[in-house]
Amino acid sequence: MEEKEQFFLEIYNLGIIKFGNFTLKSGMNSPIYIDFRPIASRPDLLIKLSDLLIHEVPYYDFELICGVPYAALPIATTLSLRSKIPLIIKRKENKGYGTERMIEGIYKIGQNCLIIEDVITSGDSLLKTIIDLEKEGLIIKNIMSILDREQGGIENIKKKGYNIRTLFRIREVFKILKKKNFLKEKERHLIQFFLRKNNIKNIQNKRISYEEKKEKIFHPIGKKLIDITLKKKTNLIVSADLIDTKKILKLVSLIGDRICGLKLHVDIINDFSYSFINYLKKISIEKKFLLLEDRKLCDVSTTNCLQLHYGIHKISSWADIVTAHVLAGSMSIQNLNLPSNMGLITISEMSSYGGLYDDNYIRKALNISLKNPKVIGTVAQRKVDDRLLLFTPGIHFYEKKNNLGNRYIHPVQAFEKNGSDFIIVGKAIFQSENPKITAEEYRNAGWKAYENVL
């Protein structure tokens, strides 16, 4: 124990714990951020850490080592060198060139692989690594982490049937730091707040209800969307990616009673007109759903503002919600002169595979979203802060990828794994033989998936 304490104090001096307001990879907000990456610049500490990890493994029968990308990679590499056990490398995503493999290295089906993780919060990124390794025919018996934030991740992994051990737990390291007088008064208060807020055992617990979420959403359009959802018992948004107004109106007449929102791309409509918009708006009021223009604004603020208010579409005059990327930074979605009854949805992460966004970008996008009062929610493929509504595109009853870069997931996965609030379905409905029946099937599946995770 003394050796572990001394080691932790050494790495603490590298600045691995930061205090402030952070959005974690899981999408959750936290006053504490733990980052083990600075250890990579200290070979002596990497060696000490790998030796501590080896002593914690209950039995030494693994044939491969793999680190969860990317923070755990230097740790796993050092452990491989110290133990002389081969290393394999897990990619975060298929790069689309070269071998296009997710797992790099030499291995055989049936080999036992030890997984190394740096910090466990919800356990989601660890589970992704497990799934990819098992797809390759590898056996996962043991997992080692450096630190458990005690927010349900360990319990989540154990429920899946895996053995997992950790060098440190968050309460334990706080006690060490307090005993050695390493903490300032403000930091002690932040720690106490963190421990109280999380009620530490259970972040993966049941999601909050729409009623509870409504209390956290301050924008009137966000609240209105939740009210519609509760009244109609639907979290289904249909993406009407059609180029003919008659087809859009015919689709809406069939499915309007089953949706809470209709998503449009007005710039693809060949015969766009204000009479069409006025009629569509009338139907949306009668059947109680919102109009979402998927414009994906992606320029500087002044240009975004012009695209919203001017041109032939004049989006701000009729849309309830508009989407925007934040590639140009937080200022790009400020000063847009949005009407008070119009909300903004940011694009933090798309449903396509091979995208250029990474976890660092997604965290920054979520932070920008939380700080802008016009933002009601975000598009992402992961859990996000409860102050944001989560919209999940790429929904299909048959999980699959296609050769156009699209990736589809089932409504159940959207709610159980990603913590979704709203599912977005397109071709599966408007290309079906009977859109009315298909929309009801997706409405029912989405609502049941929501109720089952409460």
Automatic annotation (TrEMBL):
Orotate binds at T121, R149. It comes from the Bacteria. This is Orotate phosphoribosyltransferase. It catalyses: orotidine 5'-phosphate + diphosphate = orotate + 5-phospho-alpha-D-ribose 1-diphosphate. Its EC number is 2.4.2.10. Homodimer. Its cofactor is Mg(2+).
